[in-house]
Amino acid sequence: MNGNDANDEKEPMRRLRLGQPRTGKSFALGALGIGVFCLAMAAPVASGDWPQFRGPNSDGAILPSEISASSSGGNRRAAVTALDGPTTFDRGLTIGWKVDLPGRGPSSPIVVGGKVIVTASSGVRQDLLHVLAFDAADGHLLWQRQFWATGRTITHPQTANAAPTPTTDGNKIFAFFSSNDLVALDLDGSLLWYRGLAQDFPHLGNDVGMSSSPLVVGDTVVVQSESQGESFVAGIDTVDGTTRWQLERERAATWTSPALLPNGKEMAVLVESAKTISAIDPATGIVLWTHQQDCETISSACASGGLVFVPGKGMTALRVGAGSAEPVPAWTNNQLQCGAASPTVLGNRLYAINRGGVLMTADPASGKILSRTRLDGNFWSSPVAAKNRLFAVNFEGVGQLVEISRDGSSGKVVDKIPFGETMQASPAVAGGAVFVRGDGHLWKLVAGTEK
Amino acid sequence: MTSKIFTVVMLAVLVGASGLSAATNETELSAVLASIKQVGTKGAGHRAAQAAWQKLADADAAQLPAILVALDDASPLAANWLRGATEAIVARRLADGGSLPTAALEEFLADRRHAPRSRRLAYEWLVRVDQTTADRLLPGMLDDPSLELRRDAVAQLIVQASAKGKQDPDAAKAILQTALQSARDLDQINDAIRKLGDLGVKIDLTSQLGFVTHWKVVGPFDNAGGRGFAVAYPPEKSVDLAATYPGKSGEVHWVEAEASDEMGHVDLNRALGTHKGAAAYAFAEFDSDAARPVELRLGSANASKIWLNGKPLEEAEVYHAFTTMDQYIGRGECKRGKNRILVKLCQNEQTEDWAAEWKFQLRVCDPTGGALEQQEKNP
Fold first, then answer.
1. What is d(CA A351, CA A345) in angstroms, rounded to the nearest whole number?
2. Does residue B305 sit in the same domain as residue B370?
3. Chain B closest-CA separation from residue A133 CA (Å)
4. Which in A121, B77, B201, B350 has the greatest CB count within 10 A?
């Protein structure tokens, strides 16, 4: 045995399925006619920012940098203005830069104000937490802040303390960690406040590792932390870090992340546990509705077009109304399964990657599977989609660009990009570039030349 | 106005009254540091700390040693506020081409009365401005209270041993044995043992880590619905190795159980049979030549409780959420002579294959994680 104490490494990860090319190499992703899509802007982030896990809508849909999101009431949800148009990806992608990271982390990069924000954890006990800001233009390190974890730092070796993706309201950054440390910084790295939520909840923690990524809506950071010891969802004041509201939750582990749900002119937040999905008013913590529903505890729900897509024994779509009206099931398809990757929805296409690495393209209105495309490897990273193309990065660190036919009836991998290291983070897309993060590096992909 | 509120307000007034230049007086700095150090849980004190933090972050680098001193007794939350400010100070100073107060930082680092985290921070700053720091200072840090400093010192020795290699195996052995004696992290311990093995020196990993390998165990007791975790079955009241108890499905009595691998794992399924919704107890004794702080370090995927000499040290009602060495640490005091360890291990009723595990490992350590010199007793 030789002292290897990674006990039962495979077993917990069966339950927790998370989510070197060099500069100048063109990957020539081919023509990517990115359409203009219905996109939500939950916070006053600038057009072209990628403010949180799975992007502006928390649904994996790419906000084309060419398109300015138009305000639509309080939720700033942009309107669909076109279905075809030029995009920054039309000429393929080339490595813009690649930089070293000081630690590991499945957390995804976010982009705000021309800065790429990344979290990492390091040290043999994973107790050193890093928040880094890189210049999106040239990749140079703008600032780095380090903190000592105040909660449990044990995780399965596959994941790391820096698993949750940070979030931003456009002015402030909120970085969350498996150890339940929540740090607020301004865009220059100045500390605004620091919360150690495990100091408030001593039994909080999961030694598999926690991964729920927070969201900002208005002046509230919504944090979901659910474990066998203690569980809660809380709204934290973005200004001073105090708790605005707090909801006790079932004491059971979940790794899903809150997602945005348009609610009239406001924005609600979806939170899941194994048997329920709820919509919460982020300003008050009032539960708008709770629906009994089998939910996966790793892949997260997302919302689009009045439907909420919930991974759980396949996929279920819930039709939501305004306010606190409980949603009504629209369809269930037990073949439309998600593995660790969360579903992506874009216009009239719904994508799910199952545990076998098969990408399923479905009609979000009916749940009908239109095509199945086998990808290489397994996926912990959630894909991003633009028009009829989808970009997914497998665990081994191979990016795969998939083109789906217009009618959705077929798909094919049109390019592969080997990054050469393990990848669990989801891509971020902003300012006409794609940012991907692996166990040791951060890459920027920029427009290149077409093959 | 309560005195606490008054204090915070006065601190805020002082903080807002002046900057923190190199010539800042001690009172001003103390006020700033106090404003930050009063942060509490649930966001308490953040407003006052925010104003103070900006002042502190703007301070001159000459103030760094004083801030490190403040870190010594700061709460874990306040420590991060202070650390954030020091990083802003250091980054600005170095970006401006300035220097750090190296003599004062080195003096601070040398004083082991300061908190390990503060000293580690001083060391990292010194490394950034003086490339000789590691070679000069690490050799004296093999027994450092800071596990990070100790780790770097051990790593330096392992590199030295590798350089000696087969050219001078006796020197390499000596260096590796010193490294092994100081190492506290499993990867370094394994590395040193493997390299010593290559040189013909066999080290027993189990003893090196301090695992208890001989146990008496009893069970199953009822834990249906997880309710047995809170039930104090007879062994929690007193351990009588000759006793029999009413168990989950009949009378139970203490039986022998041995660790089945070099990492000290004791398999309760093997010792007691496979059960679901069950609780068991494991008992062992060890001798200590003196009363001293001790840590009972448990690894188990089952819900657990730990007692030392009848005193509860630690509990975790968590099932099958990964396990690793030193997962739960019970801190206490052992006494001179015989000490009694009792562990409760609860199995739940999950039916998945991976939830069949009902086992544990436990080692007896000093507060650095080194194996306590002990004579394990067969109870």
1. 6
2. yes
3. 14
4. A121
Is pLDDT above 90 for A67? no
Q: Is the dihedral of CA A228, A229, A232, A234 positive or negative?
A: negative
B84 part of contact set with chain A, CB < 8 Å: yes
A244 contacts A236 by C-beta, under 8 angstroms: yes
Q: Is pLDDT of A216 > 70?
A: yes
Inter-CA distances, B285 with A123, B213, B246, B338, B377, Å: 34, 11, 24, 7, 5
B30-B36-B40 Cα angle (round to 5)? 135
- Domain A10-19+26-447 sits in which CATH superfamily? YVTN repeat-like/Quinoprotein amine dehydrogenase (2.130.10.10)
Of A1, A144, A236, the CB nearest to B263: A1
B219-230: b or e for each residue (b if 16 or more CB lie within 10 Å)? bbbbbeebebbe
* Percent of chain B whose pLDDT exceeds 70: 92
Name the token pair of B4. 């606490």
Average pLDDT (A423-448) is 91
What is the arithmetic mean of pLDDT over B276-285? 98
A369 bridge partner residues: A362
CA-wise closest residue to A191 among B148, B86, B169: B86
pLDDT tens, A364-388? 999 999 999 999 999 999 999 987 8
**Does position A64 have pLDDT exceeding 90, yes or no?**
no
Segments forming the whole domain that contains residue B287:
209-377
How many CB atoms neighbour CB A191 within 10 A?
Answer: 27
Domain count, chain B: 3
| Residues of A whose CB is below 8 A from B299 | 5, 7
The neighbour count for residue A415, using CB atoms within 10 Å, is 18
What is the Rg, in whole angstroms, of the alpha carbon atoms belonging to chain B? 26
Structure tokens at A401: 């660009």
A51 DSSP 8-state letter: -
User: What Rg value do the Cα atoms of chain A yield, rounded?
Assistant: 20
Judge if ipTM > 0.85.
yes
Q: Are A92 and A30 in contact (CB under 8 A)?
A: yes
User: Residue A240 and residue B262: Cβ atoms within 8 Å?
Assistant: no
Least Cα distance to A133 among A215, A189, A95 occurs for: A189
Q: Is residue B135 part of a domain?
A: no
Q: What is the DSSP letter of B125?
A: H
User: Are A5 and B299 within 8 A, CB to CB?
Assistant: yes
Which residue of chain B has the CA closest to A151?
B76
The domain boundary, picked from B161, B184, B203, lies at B203
Question: What's the CA gap between B350 and A328, in Å, rounded?
Answer: 32
- The tokens describing B185, both together, are 């992290």
Instruction: Assess whether B224 and B345 both reside in one domain.
Output: yes
- Residue A205 CA, distance from chain mean position: 21
**Is the distance from CB of A289 to CB of A269 less than 8 angstroms?**
no
Highest-confidence range of A86-95, A240-249, A383-392, by mean pLDDT? A240-249
CA dist B196 and B161 (Å) reads: 10
How far is B98 from A212, CA to CA, in rounded Å?
Answer: 41
Q: How far is A292 from A184, CA to CA, in rounded Å?
A: 34
A chain contacts of residue B54, beta-carbon cutoff 8 Å: 190
As a three-state string, the secondary structure of B50-84 is HHHHHHHHCCCHHHHHHHHHHHCCCCHHHHHHHHH
Alpha helix stretches (DSSP H) within A79-124 = none
Put simply, the answer to whether B79 touches A148 (Cβ < 8 Å) is yes
Q: Which of A180, A194, A171 is nearest to A240 (CA)?
A: A194
Q: Which amino acid is at A234?
A: A
B271 Cβ contact partners less than 8 Å away, ≥ 6 residues apart = B217, B255, B256, B257
Say what the alpha-carbon torsion angle B58, B59, B60, B65 is, to the nearest 10 degrees: -140
- Among residues B89, B109, B130, which one ends one of the domains? B130
Q: What is the pTM of this model?
A: 0.90
Claim to verify: residue B221 and residue B192 sit in the same structural domain: no
